[in-house]
Amino acid sequence: MAGRIPQSFIDDLLARVDIVDVIDAYTTLKKAGKNYKGLCPFHQEKSPSFSVEPDKQFYYCFGCGAGGNALGFLMNHDNLDYVEAIEKLASQAGMEVPREESSGAQRSREQNQALYDVLQESARFYQAQLRQHPQKNRAIEYLKNRGLSGEIARDFALGYAPPGWSNLIDSIGSTEQKKKALLNAGMLIENPDNKRNPLYDRFRDRIIYPIRDNRGRTIAFGGRVLGDDKPKYLNSPETPVFHKGEELYGLYEARKSTRKLEKFMIVEGYMDVIALAQKGISYSVATLGTATSTSHLRRLFKLVPEIVFCFDGDNAGRDAAWRALEQVLPLMEDGRTARFLFLPDGEDPDTQVRKIGNAAFTGNVNNATQLAEFFFQALGEQVDMNSLEGRARLAKIALPHIEKIPKGVYHQLILDQLGTITGVDPSTLGNMEKSPPSPAPAGPAGPEYSPVPTRPSPPKSSAGRSVCMKAVNLILLKPDMATDFDQEEELRAINATDMDLLLQVINLAKKHPSSTTPELLGRVYATPLGSQLTRLLDREQITPREGVEQEFREIISHMLETHRKRLSHHSWLEEARQKLQSRRKPENSADEG
């Protein structure tokens, strides 16, 4: 059922369930002090590093870094999205999920449901034709020649659209309402010039590949021609339930076949996905006639920490790989991995896996080129690395790309590698990255030269990061501290890493001051902010509960006082510079007398 789930219900749900009971159903937990410990259900380990904290209603694994609340656990463990996790947790608690729905949303939901219904009927029709139609052998022979088994055809619900202009209409378009739904679902094409038969089937004489969403609902189709018609592959058009720039073929099947996925591999076509799955490589997906988008990648990274891009090894494949790299750079948070697998010329995953077998292909995937290696290799080919000018050019073209990577350990390691390659100190590169180069001074003889240097902006130090993070952690422990907080504008002027995060959390806590820590996390869990906050609660806090507010005030006061002193010092330097300039005689003034 569609409609927004009230936040009050999510808060009530998190307040009612006990995370220990939720997780204990998946892995055995034993009391250890005030917490519980056990073997991590997210990775293989022999000694327990998985901890559950009842007070915070929070879990964290010190081995693999997995962490979150009860909703987050179900999302990560069962490969569920946020709404699915709420529904499952509510079911376990014996609660019915309410929905808030306007009259317009209700109409939209009913219209979309009509599309889902006719799309599912269409899928059943095409599957039946593959078994029953008089010309079914043409389709079956094609699938056999591609090496597909009956079992894999069943798993991917493959079908057959027989020749003819009205097979689908005649079968399920029994009413005007059904015909309208088929047209809106992209299954029919309208020809206004044909007054007698203005509608005809979109898919004719083609192998049919149903495209399913993450809930297994058929939302569109792809068709591969058996005759000489063009185009060779045909996809459903965009509809209210199908947006090709967001969907991935094979994602539902991959999640269904493997309980805990560790990676996804993005390939080009339907047959690549199916052929790999038949060989036991069930983690491949394909875009639907579009380039890989940030939307695709965000969706995959919510489910797994690693993505492998698979391309031909020719120039076109390398160009496509570079475009994919540009899309993935802004998503490369610490803990995520991107690799690039380049196949031999003339090969695709379908032909390659049949030629070398499962084990060898899997080995190639595991040894695929790391993002950093491909990044520097591709850029290095554009410059002369044996000259100073070439290395300077490499730094110039690499830094704008590195800036896109989220700040963290991985970002710094890429910067360090650029420093190793170019021979430039990474801190220097970091300063070049943070701000555009300023024009060079005119020199000692120039009118603008001054021996008093202007003070650069303060660096975003790791110390500043720890102070901001500590403040965020304290707010999470006691959100009502933010109720009367009125120093946001002063904090916003401070140039410190993660200050934006602190201000976001203060704003969130101001809106929901009576929330508990798990309730506050539950409000933002499926967002980038929620992911950041989850990682903050990965260790025991030494501040007693009654000392939280005092420590928070001390941290804020310290940050503001340090900032004021820095401004005062900068003001003094600027005043000294101006005085020195005012004492100078103009060089071209005439002597008196």
Number of E strands: 16
**Residue share in β-strands:** 5-15%
Question: What is the gyration radius calculated from CA atoms?
Answer: 30 Å
* CATH class wording of the largest domain: Alpha Beta
Q: Can you say what the CATH homologous superfamily of the largest domain is?
A: DNA primase, catalytic core, N-terminal domain
Strand order of the largest sheet: 1-2-3-4-5
Q: What is the end-to-end distance?
A: 97 Å
The oligomerization state is single chain
Helix content: 40-55%
| Structural shape | globular
> Total number of helical segments?
24
Structure commentary:
With 593 residues, the protein is of the alpha+beta class. The protein folds into five domains: 7-92, Zinc finger, CHC2-typedomain (DNA Primase, Chain A, Alpha-Beta Complex); 103-235, DNA primase, catalytic core, N-terminal domain (DNA primase DNAg catalytic core, N-terminal domain), CATH 3.90.980; 251-377, Dna Topoisomerase Vi A Subunit, Chain: A, domain 2, CATH 3.40.1360; 385-434; 462-575, DNAb Helicase, Chain A. The chain is built from 24 helices and 16 strands. It has helices at 7-16, 19-24, 70-77, 82-92, 103-132, 136-145, 150-155, 167-172, 176-184, 251-257, 270-278, 294-301, 315-328, 349-366, 371-380, 388-402, 409-422, 426-434, 462-477, 488-492, 499-511, 517-524, 528-536, 548-583; strands at 30-32, 35-38, 50-53, 58-61, 67-68, 159-161, 188-190, 199-201, 206-212, 218-225, 233-235, 263-267, 284-286, 306-312, 337-343, 369-370. The strands form four sheets. A five-stranded antiparallel beta sheet has the order 1-2-3-4-5. Strands 13-12-14-15-16 form a five-stranded mixed beta sheet, with helices on both faces. A four-stranded antiparallel beta sheet has the order 6-9-10-11, sandwiched between helices. A hairpin with a 7-residue loop joins strand 10 and strand 11. Helix 1 (7-16) crosses helix 22 (517-524), helix 3 (70-77) packs across helix 4 and helix 11 (270-278) crosses helix 14 (349-366). 31% of the residues are buried. Residues 435-465, 538-543 and 587-593 have low confidence and may be disordered.
